[in-house]
Design goal:
Number of domains: 2
Shape: elongated
Order of helices and strands: HHHEEEEEEEEHHHEHHHEEEHE
Low-confidence stretches: 257-261, 266-279
Oligomer: single chain
Mean pLDDT: 85
Largest sheet: 6 strands, mixed
Number of helices: 10
Structural class: alpha+beta
Radius of gyration: 26 Å
Helix content: 25-40%
C-alpha cells in the first residue's frame, strides 16, 4: 500500500511538471514507462518487491482522477498522505481465490489473508478485482468485486411519500415519524475531548499518532452508526412499498454558511459568517445524512424493481392543503400545525407535506411527464 501511494505521488508530480514546464500532457502509458524506469533506480528498487499489477492500478486511478478533473466533475488530484490510510487494487491476475475454503492470497504473498467474513460470497461468482484498504482509524478492509444478479422483490401495491426534517428524520404520508438519531450531536463531548488531547501532543511523536487515532475512531463510530441507521430505514421503505416519492433537497445550499450581516445590537459591526441566520443548523443538516439516504433509496429501488420519484425542490409541499388543494402561502418553521381556511381541516405540517409529495409523485407517474413537478423518474 505504501508503494501504491508512492507511485501515485510520483506520477502526479511527473504529470504536473510535464504540463507546467513543457506543456506536455503525460498519459497513463507515459507514467507506466516512468514506473519501469523508477524500478531500475537504486533509490526506488523496493518497488520491485511488490506486485506490478497493484502499482499499475494506482496509475490507472490517477488517470481516472485527471479525467474527472478535465470533465469538471472533481478537483485537481492531490498528493496522498500516510495518515489518510490508502488502498491497493489487484486485478484477477494478481490474486488467487479458492471459493471452497474462501481463501484469498495476493500476489507475492505466501499465506492467505486472515479475513473475518461479514457476508457470504456466492461460489459461482468469480472475483474480478480485490481492493485492500486502510482507513484513517487504522482498520483494514478487503473489497471483493463480483458480478451478481439481484432478485427483484414481489410487486407490492404500497405507496409512500417522504418528507425529510431535522426534528424527525423522515415523515411518511402514512403518518409515521422516524426520530432523528443525531449521532454526531451525541458524540460531540467525546470528540471535543479527543481533539483537545490531540492539540496538546507534539506533532510527529508517538503520542500524537495515538491521539490522532482516537479522534479518527470516534468519527468512524459516528459514521458507522449513521450508515447502519440509514441502511435499515431505506431497506424497510423499499421492501414495504412499490412506489416511493421523495423531495429533492439542496443540502449544499442549506448547509452553506451565511454571508456576514449587520449586528442588530451593535450598529456598524457585522456578525461572523454562519451566525447571521443559520446558527446551529449547519451541523445538524450535515449530521442527518439526507444525501446518503437518497442514494441508498436510488440504488436499492433499481435493485429490487421499485419505483422512485424525486420531486423538484421548489414544489410547495408545505403550503398546499392536501385535502382541497388551497395554497396558503409560506409558513415559518415555528408553525408545526395549521388549519386550512378553505376546508377547515387541521394539518400536521410535516404529514401534510408528505401527502402532497406522494400526490405529486403519483401524478407524475400517471402522466409520464416529469415537468409536472420538476420530478425525476427512476
Amino acid at each position: 500500500m505504501g508503494c501504491c501511494r508512492k507511485v501515485w505521488n510520483m506520477g502526479l508530480d511527473a504529470r504536473t511538471q510535464a504540463w507546467t514546464e513543457r506543456r506536455e500532457n503525460l498519459s497513463y502509458a507515459g507514467t507506466c514507462l516512468l514506473l519501469t524506469a523508477w524500478k531500475k533506480q537504486d533509490e526506488y528498487s523496493y518497488l520491485s518487491e511488490v506486485s506490478a499489477v497493484a502499482l499499475q492500478q494506482s496509475l490507472r486511478h490517477l488517470q481516472a482522477a485527471f479525467r474527472n478533473f478535465f470533465n469538471k466533475t472533481a478537483d485537481y488530484p492531490r498528493f496522498k498522505a500516510k495518515r489518510d490510510g490508502g488502498s491497493a487494487t489487484f486485478a484477477s491476475s494478481a490474486f488467487t481465490w479458492k471459493p471452497e475454503s474462501r481463501e484469498l492470497t495476493l500476489a507475492k504473498m505466501a499465506e492467505p489473508l486472515p479475513i473475518r467474513w461479514p457476508r457470504t460470497i456466492p461460489r459461482r461468482c468469480a472475483p474480478s478485482s480485490v481492493t485492500v484498504s486502510l482507513d484513517p482509524a487504522g482498520r483494514w478492509h478487503v473489497s471483493i468485486l463480483v458480478e451478481e444478479t439481484v432478485k427483484s422483490m414481489p410487486e407490492d401495491g404500497g405507496q409512500v411519500g417522504i418528507d425529510m426534517g431535522l426534528e424527525h428524520f423522515a415523515i411518511t404520508s402514512d403518518g409515521e415519524k422516524v426520530d432523528n438519531p443525531r449521532y454526531l450531536k451525541r458524540a460531540l463531548d467525546k470528540l471535543e475531548r479527543a481533539q483537545q488531547n490531540l492539540s496538546r501532543k507534539k506533532k510527529g511523536s508517538n503520542n500524537h499518532e495515538k491521539a490522532r487515532l482516537k479522534v479518527a475512531r470516534a468519527y468512524v463510530k459516528v459514521r458507522d452508526c449513521r450508515d447502519d441507521f440509514l441502511h435499515k430505514l431505506s431497506t424497510r421503505i423499499i421492501r414495504d412499498n412499490q412506489t416511493v416519492v421523495i423531495e429533492d433537497l439542496a443540502v449544499k445550499g442549506m448547509s452553506r454558511r451565511c454571508a456576514a450581516k449587520p449586528d442588530p445590537d451593535n450598529p456598524g459591526r457585522y456578525l461572523p459568517n454562519g451566525q447571521a441566520a443559520k446558527s446551529g443548523l449547519n451541523r445538524s443538516i450535515m449530521d442527518a445524512g439526507w444525501c446518503r439516504f437518497r442514494l441508498m433509496l436510488e440504488y436499492k429501488a433499481a435493485w429490487y424493481g421499485r419505483e422512485l420519484t424525486v420531486i423538484d425542490r421548489w414544489y410547495p409541499s408545505s403550503q398546499v392543503c392536501h385535502a382541497c388543494g388551497a395554497n396558503m402561502g409560506r409558513k415559518g418553521l415555528d408553525v408545526r400545525s395549521w388549519t386550512c381556511p378553505a376546508c377547515g381541516m387541521v394539518h400536521d405540517r410535516d404529514v401534510n407535506a408528505a401527502k402532497n409529495i406522494l400526490s405529486a409523485g403519483l401524478a407524475v407517474r400517471a402522466c409520464g411527464d416529469p415537468r409536472i413537478a420538476g420530478a425525476t423518474l427512476r
